[in-house]
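Students often ask why inverse folding is considered easier than folding. One informal answer: many sequences map to the same fold, so there is more than one right answer. In these notes we will look at a single instance of the problem. The structure comes first.
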């Protein structure tokens, strides 16, 4: 069946790599960041969405996190509309209570003696690491086989300073991934200059599910940011990046690093969790490092006046790209940076593999 005129094609109808990438979901059999820990207080519940699937994430009075499918078995209301009582999630409509295993354990109005329904809701494994809440939306039997990415710099007594930035952008997740490792868009950031125009791509290699990228470029040369980077001690003329499906990271001289964790909500909405972290920064105009105890305070200010506004430019760009794609999805794809094509190839292949596994399960009757 051909796609509806004026709307982008779905994955099955897509005719080229770009269309396939823009219709691809993400393999749920990975750990995904869904929220920052401090934003979900004990005794509260929030809705999180992974690729059109609504999940109720709640935190009991004991501080533990739990995730169950976001519906009451009774009238199908979203449980995120309800409240947390102790370590139970309570539906807002009739007060049905659910425990962390998705079982209905109390019905206040059961005056007919019918008992509790034996229809447990689906639950999802949850972990906490780096101040972030991670959820495994796929097959729970694979949750322990997959690892949350190891970031040793953000653990232990000598951990580096890091203040996450979180955005929700009206754009497909592949556009966000394309953006963060495509250094041909330096023009967009000409005010902040996180990297220079004319960056030279020195590596673009796909190894398994990872795309390794490297650029010769000048990093951190902005009018403000350049004052805090010790260019005499660091080699900021070279940057390594990687699309480590489904995550993305960068590294400048083992001293300036970042991770991006995307949460795909649907074909045109993505949450982006950025973690920028620094081994050290220096005082402006002085060859003196900022004390470790003051680094987080400096980063909070930097996020507000520099990094946040810079990333907001990316948000404007990818949202405009989404709108443009929806209007002109059938325009011939033109791409000069081989990095983007490499990313899209991995995104499409991983989604195709996941869909094929699902069809195999259906055909096997499981």
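Output (designed amino acids):
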């Amino acid at each position: 069946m051909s796609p509806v005129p004026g709307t982008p094609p779905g994955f099955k109808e897509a005719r080229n790599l770009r269309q396939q990438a823009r219709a691809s979901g993400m393999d749920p059999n990975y750990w995904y960041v869904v929220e920052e820990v401090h934003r979900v207080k004990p005794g509260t519940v929030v809705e999180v969405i992974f690729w059109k699937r609504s999940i109720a994430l709640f935190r009991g009075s004991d501080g533990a996190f739990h995730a169950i499918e976001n519906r009451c078995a009774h009238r199908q209301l979203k449980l995120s509309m309800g409240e947390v009582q102790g370590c139970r999630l309570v539906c807002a409509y009739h007060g049905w209570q659910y425990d962390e295993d998705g079982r209905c354990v109390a019905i206040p109005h059961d005056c007919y003696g019918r008992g509790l329904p034996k229809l447990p809701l689906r639950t999802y494994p949850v972990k906490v690491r780096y101040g972030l809440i991670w959820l495994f939306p796929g097959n729970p039997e694979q949750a322990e086989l997959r690892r949350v990415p190891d970031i040793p710099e953000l653990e232990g007594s000598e951990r580096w300073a890091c203040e996450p930035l979180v955005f929700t952008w009206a754009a497909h997740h592949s556009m966000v991934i394309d953006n963060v490792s495509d250094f041909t868009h330096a023009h967009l950031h000409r005010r902040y200059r996180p990297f220079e125009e004319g960056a030279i791509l020195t590596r673009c290699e796909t190894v398994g599910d990872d795309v390794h990228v490297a650029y010769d470029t000048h990093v951190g040369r902005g009018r403000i940011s350049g004052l805090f980077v010790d260019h005499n001690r660091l080699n900021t003329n070279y940057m390594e990046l990687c699309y480590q499906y489904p995550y993305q990271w960068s590294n400048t001289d083992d001293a300036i690093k970042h991770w991006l964790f995307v949460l795909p909500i649907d074909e045109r909405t993505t949450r982006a969790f950025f973690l920028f972290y620094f081994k050290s920064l220096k005082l402006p105009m002085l060859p003196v490092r900022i004390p470790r105890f003051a680094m987080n305070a400096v980063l909070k200010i930097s996020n507000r006046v520099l990094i946040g506004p810079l990333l907001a430019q990316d948000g404007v760009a990818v949202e405009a790209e989404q709108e443009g794609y929806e209007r002109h999805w059938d325009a011939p794809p033109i791409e000069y940076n081989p990095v983007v094509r490499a990313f899209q190839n991995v995104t499409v292949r991983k989604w195709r593999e996941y869909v094929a596994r699902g069809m195999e399960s259906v055909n096997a009757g499981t």
